[in-house]
Amino acid sequence: MEITEFDGVKDCLERVRSGWNSGDAHVFAQQFTEDATYVIYLGEALLGRGEIEKNHVDVLGKWEQGTKMAIKVLNINRLDDRTVSVLTAGGIGKGSTIRYDKLQTFTVVNRDGHWLCSAFQNTAMSRRARRLYNPGGVDLLGRLLSLLGRNAK
User: Rounded to two decimals, what is the model's pTM?
Assistant: First the structure.
């Protein structure tokens, strides 16, 4: 197996995904630095690993219980030897196919040889982006909004 420059960063994202899929807020939060920032798609900021964990107890135990996460890396940009910015398409769901409906930016840092997320921003995709990152799929939200006479951005 060939080792690439960003394997450790991709492993970090895989641990984030696995942490979500486990349904365990503590496991999920451990993939973030103690001083991490986490901006949810609704526009609220969580400050620090403890707050990320506390928030995700209800997220993973109630509202999104049993969901699985999908992450697709779109771009990795090295900022310095220990810091990268990662743009991803992401989604959560319970079906066998999880559609991407969010664009996400992760700032991933290397601390003592271990890659962790120090900042995360999660934003709902526009209709155009949903079509772009889910080729061949039906944009159900866009179709529903269209039927209601509303425009999906």
Answer: 0.84
